[in-house]
């Protein structure tokens, strides 16, 4: 490979005439029927900015043309990839729908201009780069979202394509934006439709055509491999850069080929790159290079970014289910970038031939952004090995198309240990270590035993897992291969045939190694169903030998929970500790229904659903969507009908909470000295005349605002010697489902006294007298500089808030009219599970913790102390419950579920001294003093 930034003139002179790509006069489709468009169908008026090339349409929906509603055969489901909404009323529909699409054009290829064809119902206006190029069935003059079409089209008229020829100057070289607005004749119109086709005409278009791809492989923080196939041999060329119109860097192949592979190097980690592919012999040729052709390089190892993963098994059948699964996932993920794409085996049916990969994989996904943007990582299944039915030697000689189609890490290019083989490999992505194994192909030294203890794959696997065992940069380990250890779907992991080969060997030989090295998630296919376990460990037997008390994680890991983490009963997340001495469990997923299904006339196997599975689905296909961010992993099974049929969450080391009101939020406030009575505390109260500002709202402290125009300035009235006593604050929040929260933590900063209400109910009173409060009620005491900087923490039950709109109100009172300063801030967090703590002995049950023998009450060392954030306790402090208080005895943190405390984070707290008091068996201990600097 060779990189250069200049023209390839010298290279072209060296190429013989025979080696040049032949050309002929032709036309080329720039925008095809069935292309993906962005669209806006919310009834708003977009003015004129939406037509320009620089307009941001990131929030718009996207779908494939024809985009429509109301015609016979048109989509009626909002999850359909070409459904357009007409609004909430069928008798008062939106008049206008907007459409946008970006394209890359090499204008030199089309000296005779372009042919534009549109299908519309009723009226249409088309713009290229903000300039109008076509208006049909629309009035003259200015167009708005309320402008109706000139006439209502009949069934015959709305099926007629309108055609116009445009000059070559109408488009720019590089990126162009097509913008279209379709208008109805009236709000009662029965249907709407839009389609568009753009063809470049004249000139000479190379006969070389793009047959496959481009698709991405082997992504690293500094590199990416692009592969594609052409109809004739050429020297592959990739242009890339920071924007579609600035592909200033070029890499080309050293020799001609039809199957192209170009590796980009020296890239910047976690950075977006646009690209196009073409042929070096014809530098103006762009085989593909649209606004959808881009990728992000991987983050550096250890960087905890939000990582999105699509996993699908047994998908390459070319079935309607495969198409439905694709569309359901793409609709669910929307415009979010997908970082990794896992193929779990049986990627091309029935024999894994190259022609089957083309028909059932590349042709299926060729128009989707996923194949253009997301690097794919695969494992071979038995059908990729021709099901060992062609020459009967595929399983041993590995002469299969899979290894020609895919490029995988052999030399630890992205971390891990080099395997030297593409059958099995590993790599790092951010804080995730990913391993792909081969569960069907035999190897020398392994004989016919899959995962033989002394086979090369198992020897490598142990080295790889050992290498990342103590790597602090890696917090998740995901392993995938084709054949599942537990299933009762289209295959039976306990059948005599399977017990005699791969599934038994996987359980008995492979799983103990995964347990030993604390793997988190295993993904498989093969069985054409969806099955998902809880956290499972130390389980290598048959279904009848499964014992949830032994093989699921302990109670402290929420081991018997569904893991759905959605507010349904017993749905808490699974919890794992990075410091646990043994693995607390692995979630096993069988996702083998992404294209294939249970054969007609067949059923699931005896024993369905498998006893080890939390969720088992055999009637509908789907795929797995993973999001990994920091120490949290969320997984969803997106069914082919668009529904999330299953989900689970794994969290490591820290209990999560969701910030509902943050410090720095905007509040309404009243600072005019009036007494609003009690009605101001309710949600229905009209606070439109109140001021608004961002917390901390205050006056008088050093650094506080002194200008009335500051966004957090509160007035004390016209007299500095006779200030207003009370200031009132209001904020509304909307909770779509309050039941997902176990409770709420509220933190309040006040000077001097405060009363807080939720939906009109008092939830907190501090430094205020009892009884009725009015605007002239003074605080009990004037707070000193240290006290007024201490956050007050209140724990509220889940019933404190309701679904929908809630109002939080607060009144802050001064100690007297001569008070020098006033301040108010409030934070609200929703907690979603009971307290969970890390443990140096995760096997201990709550009852065992509550009755720890006195011999366990060893002296505890706290370090660093003083601290600016976390302190660590060694050994971990056992407790039945504990509280953390300030020197005034006010509780700032409380945990009531028994456990072990290895660390505590004081970073949210104000500087000062705190007392850690362990209760229960540990109540004989003296309070531990901790100083926060």
Automatic annotation (TrEMBL):
InterPro entries in alphabetical order? Calcineurin-like_PHP (IPR004843), FN3_dom (IPR003961), Metallo-depent_PP-like (IPR029052), PAPs_N (IPR015914), Purple_acid_Pase-like_N (IPR008963), Secre_tail (IPR026444)
The residue ranges of the Purple acid phosphatase N-terminal domain are: 216-296
CDD domains linked: FN3 (cd00063)
Respond yes or no to whether keyword Nucleotide-binding is given for this record. Answer: no
Q: Name one GO molecular function term.
A: acid phosphatase activity
Protein name listed in UniProt: T9SS type A sorting domain-containing protein
List residues of the Calcineurin-like phosphoesterase domain.
308-530
- Pfam families per UniProt: Metallophos (PF00149), Pur_ac_phosph_N (PF16656)
Q: Which region is the signal sequence?
A: 1-23
Q: Does the keyword Signal apply?
A: yes
PANTHER family for this protein: ACID PHOSPHATASE TYPE 7, PURPLE ACID PHOSPHATASE
* Source organism, top-level taxon: Bacteria
* Protein keywords: Signal
């Amino acid at each position: 490979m060779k990189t250069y930034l200049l023209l390839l003139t010298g290279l072209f002179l060296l190429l013989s005439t025979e080696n040049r790509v032949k050309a002929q006069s032709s036309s080329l489709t720039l925008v095809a029927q069935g292309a993906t468009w962005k669209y806006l169908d919310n009834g708003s008026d977009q003015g004129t900015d939406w037509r320009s090339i620089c307009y941001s349409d990131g929030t718009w929906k996207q779908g494939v043309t024809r985009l429509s509603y109301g015609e016979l055969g048109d989509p009626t489901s909002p999850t359909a990839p070409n459904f357009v909404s007409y609004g909430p009323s069928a008798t008062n529909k939106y008049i206008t729908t907007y459409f946008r699409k970006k394209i890359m054009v090499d204008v030199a290829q089309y000296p005779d201009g372009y042919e534009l064809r549109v299908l519309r119902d009723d009226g249409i206006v088309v713009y290229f780069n903000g300039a109008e190029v076509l208006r049909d069935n629309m009035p003259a003059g200015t167009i708005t979202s309320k402008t109706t079409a000139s006439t209502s089209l009949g069934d015959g008229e709305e099926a007629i394509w309108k055609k116009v020829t445009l000059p070559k100057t109408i488009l720019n070289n590089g990126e162009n934006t097509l913008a279209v607005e379709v208008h109805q004749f009236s709000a009662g119109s029965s249907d709407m439709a839009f389609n568009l086709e753009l063809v470049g005409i004249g000139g000479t278009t190379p006969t070389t055509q793009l047959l496959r791809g481009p698709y991405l492989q082997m992504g690293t923080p500094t590199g990416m491999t692009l592969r594609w196939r052409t109809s004739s041999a050429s020297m592959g060329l990739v242009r890339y850069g920071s924007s579609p119109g600035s592909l200033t860097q070029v890499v080309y192949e050293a020799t001609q080929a039809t199957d192209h592979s170009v590796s980009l190097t020296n890239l910047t980690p976690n950075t977006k790159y646009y690209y196009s592919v073409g042929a070096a012999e014809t530098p103006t040729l762009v085989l593909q290079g649209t606004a959808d052709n881009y990728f992000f390089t991987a983050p550096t190892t250890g960087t905890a970014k939000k990582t999105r993963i699509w996993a699908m098994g047994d998908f390459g059948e070319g079935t309607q289910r495969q198409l439905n699964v694709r569309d359901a996932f793409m609709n669910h993920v929307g415009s979010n970038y997908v970082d990794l794409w896992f193929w779990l085996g049986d990627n091309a049916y029935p024999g894994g031939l190259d022609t089957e990969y083309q028909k059932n994989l590349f042709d299926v996904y060729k128009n989707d952004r996923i194949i253009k943007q997301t690097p794919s990582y695969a494992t071979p299944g038995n059908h990729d090995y021709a099901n060992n039915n062609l020459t009967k030697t595929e399983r041993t000689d590995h002469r299969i198309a899979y290894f020609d189609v895919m490029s995988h890490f052999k030399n630890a290019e992205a971390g891990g240990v080099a395997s030297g083989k593409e059958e099995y490999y590993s790599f790092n992505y951010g804080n995730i270590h990913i391993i792909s194994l081969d569960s069907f192909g035999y190897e020398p030294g392994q004989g016919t035993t899959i995962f033989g203890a002394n086979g090369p794959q198992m020897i490598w696997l142990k080295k790889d897992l050992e290498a990342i065992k103590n790597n602090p940069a890696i917090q998740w380990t995901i392993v995938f291969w084709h054949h599942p250890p537990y299933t009762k779907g289209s295959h039976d992991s306990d059948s005599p045939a399977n017990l005699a080969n791969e599934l038994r060997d996987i359980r008995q030989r492979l799983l103990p190694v995964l347990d030993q090295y604390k793997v988190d998630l295993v993904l498989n296919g093969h069985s054409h169903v969806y099955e998902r376990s809880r956290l499972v460990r130390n389980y290598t037997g048959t279904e009848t030998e499964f014992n949830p008390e032994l093989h699921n994680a302990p109670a402290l890991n929420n081991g018997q929970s569904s893991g759905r983490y959605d507010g349904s009963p017993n749905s808490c997340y699974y919890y794992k500790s990075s410091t646990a001495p043994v693995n607390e469990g692995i979630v096993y997923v069988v996702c083998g229904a992404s294209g294939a299904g249970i054969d007609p006339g067949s059923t699931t196997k005896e024993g369905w659903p498998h006893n080890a599975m939390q969720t088992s689905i055999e009637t509908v296909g789907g795929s797995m969507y993973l999001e990994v961010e920091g120490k949290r992993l969320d997984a969803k099974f997106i069914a082919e009908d668009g529904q999330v049929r299953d989900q689970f969450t794994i969290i490591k080391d820290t209990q999560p909470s969701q910030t509902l009101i943050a410090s720095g939020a905007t509040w309404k406030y009243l600072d005019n000295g009036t007494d609003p009575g009690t009605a101001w505390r309710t949600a229905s109260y009209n606070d439109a005349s109140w001021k608004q500002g961002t917390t901390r709202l205050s006056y008088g402290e050093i650094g506080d605002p002194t200008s009335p125009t500051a966004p957090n300035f509160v007035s004390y009235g016209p007299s500095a010697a006779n200030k207003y006593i009370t200031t009132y604050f209001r904020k509304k929040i909307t909770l779509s489902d309050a039941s997902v929260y176990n409770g709420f933590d509220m933190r309040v900063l006040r000077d001097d006294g405060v009363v807080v209400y939720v939906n009109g109910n008092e939830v907190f009173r501090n430094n205020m007298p009892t009884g009725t409060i009015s605007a002239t009620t003074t605080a009990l005491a004037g707070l000193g500089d240290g006290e007024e900087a201490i956050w007050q923490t209140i724990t509220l039950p889940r019933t404190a808030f309701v679904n929908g709109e809630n109002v939080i109100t607060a009144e802050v009172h001064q100690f007297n009219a001569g008070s020098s300063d006033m301040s108010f801030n409030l934070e609200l967090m929703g907690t979603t599970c009971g307290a969970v703590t890390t443990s140096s002995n995760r096997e201990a049950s709550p009852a065992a913790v509550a009755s720890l023998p006195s011999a366990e009450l060893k002296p505890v060392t706290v370090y660093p102390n003083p601290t600016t954030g976390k302190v660590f306790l060694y050994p971990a402090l056992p407790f039945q419950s504990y509280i953390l208080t300030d020197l005034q005895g006010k509780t700032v943190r409380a945990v009531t579920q028994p456990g072990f405390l290895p660390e505590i984070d004081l970073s949210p707290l104000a500087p000062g001294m705190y007392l850690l008091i362990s209760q229960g068996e540990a109540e004989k201990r003296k309070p531990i003093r901790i100083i926060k600097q």
